[in-house]
Each structure stands twice: as structure tokens, then as C-alpha cells.
Amino acid sequence: MTALAAIMEAYFPVGDEGTFDYFKAIAGAVSLPVVLYTNPNFQRSDLSLAVIERLAAIDNYRYIKDASSNTGRLLSIINRAGDRLRVFSASAHIPACAMLIGGVGWMAGPACLVPGRSVDLYELCRQGKWDEALVVQKELWALNQAFAKYNLAACVKGGLELQGYDVGAPLPPQSPLPPQGRDELRETLQRLGAL
Q1: 3-class SS of residue 96
Q2: Considering the entire predicted model, what is its pTM?
Q3: What CATH class is the domain 1-108?
């Protein structure tokens, strides 16, 4: 293993000090680089900007994956801790926009289905070819929309099956991709040259 992703799941809300202590304990328990992962849409407790800035001072916290869908938040993180913490967006963000403001990449489900086009987008952003990057981004955004409409696990597994990989259905209680979603995903993947 070369890195660890750390997320906090809590039944009850946890305040800033408890959140900081939790992530500080993780960093103290490993020598690996650690990716902070925050997904406030699904978590009862989130990483506040103040906590993110404090955690960025800990040596092995080097990255953050933010799935907030708030691109302004990404810019706030970059402004407060961008010299110590490299920012990755998730499926909830538009990757080209995240890279334009200083993000270094994205960790997102659509790349499982269109890895080549995802690398193309990354390379165009890295080279500062924003007009070309936005053309690719607009094409890829249909996958993000499908993920939001149907469910990430169902779309990844359904898409991989459409591509010939026998990965099975998502584990319950997640539902498989419904027939309408499968048809929409097939059309999108065909349009992207991924089928």
C-alpha cells in the first residue's frame, strides 16, 4: 500500500475538536501519506475549513478528496492549505474547473468507465489547454449526470458489464441499474467511444 484514504463516519454529529482528534490519530498511527476524504452529502460530520487547515500541518496529510459539490469550497481549501495539501475533486465537481483553480486531479467513478478520456482531460488541463479540456469535459459530464441520477455503484457496475466485465450487481441494499438507466448509460458510453 502506498497511501491511505481517511473518512469519518459517525452516527451522531462530531464537533471540530473531535473531528480533528480523529484524523490526527489516524495520521499518528501510520507512516503512509494520507488522503483526507470528505463527502458532506453523506456524512453526519464534515471537515470544516479550520480543521482542514490544521490537519494540513500534519506531515503525512498531503491530499484531500472533496465531494462537497461546492467548487468555492475547493478554492477556499486551496487558498488556506494549497501549499501543503493537494486538492482532488470527486464526481460532484467539474474536474476541469477544479484543475483550473489549482486542483491537481480528481478521484471519481466515471474514470472507471472511460479511463482513456479521463487521462486525456487530465493531460489537457495539466498543459493549460483549457479550450480543448472543456470540449472533453462537456462530453464526459453526461456520465456524472447519470451517476447523480441513478447511483454511483449501479452505474459503475452496469457500465463495466456493458463493456464486457462480469462484475455482478452492487451489494444490497444498493440496487442494480434499472433498464432505463442501462439504456441511457449504454448510449452515453457509445457516444464516448467506450463500447
Answers
A1: helix
A2: 0.89
A3: alpha beta
